[in-house]
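re: ur question from yesterday

yeah so i grabbed the chain u mentioned. its 204 aa long if i counted rite. heres the sequnce exactly as i have it in my notes:
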Amino acid sequence: MTLTCPHCQQESEHEALSHINIDRNPELRSKVQDLSCFRVKCPNCGETVLAVYPCLYHDMVGQFMVWLWPEEEQSAPHADFDPLAGYTLRIVDSLNAFREKINILDLGLDDRAVEMMKLLLFMRLKHDLDVVEVLFHELDNRTGDFRFVAVLSDGVEQYAAMPGSIYQQLRTDIEERLFTSGKDFARIDLQWAGEALEMLREAE
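ran it thru and got these structure tokens back, copy pasting raw so excuse formatting
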């Protein structure tokens, strides 16, 4: 991978971690979550920068794959996957979405329901706050609440929670009324959530 340093504009070559099999390399789990496996040091000026490039995360035990496929890449990966394999296949275009999606699927959650929760929370918060992004943070096993991080335009982060009952209802509605193909990598994000929410309202 050729990387142009944003600090000194010097080009340099770096080894890209294009495929992560977490069952064979479990030590990479934490490095994905803190993004350290995407940090490279410029040999010219010594600055450390984040390198965003195509990377496939494969969890054989959890039966899911997540493609990090940056928007500037020309064509998204295609896979004619056997849906009977039971895998969940997802594609994202940013590092935040990459580690968030892995976190959600690693917990065994339905990311479609979580994305719809994020959309509902975003719509609620934007009336009073200048929210630019909502990210799933964690599931509180004690209370069953879903905790999210709302990122404001000035970079400030605020935490918000939603009850697990909302997740359960959304998951039931999705499973009964919506279809997501298991043969290819699906982009399940806020845009998808908006379209899905509209479809659910029309089906009522």
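noticed a couple things. The mean pLDDT is 90. also The helical segments are 28-33, 95-106, 111-125, 164-177, 190-203.
anyway ttyl
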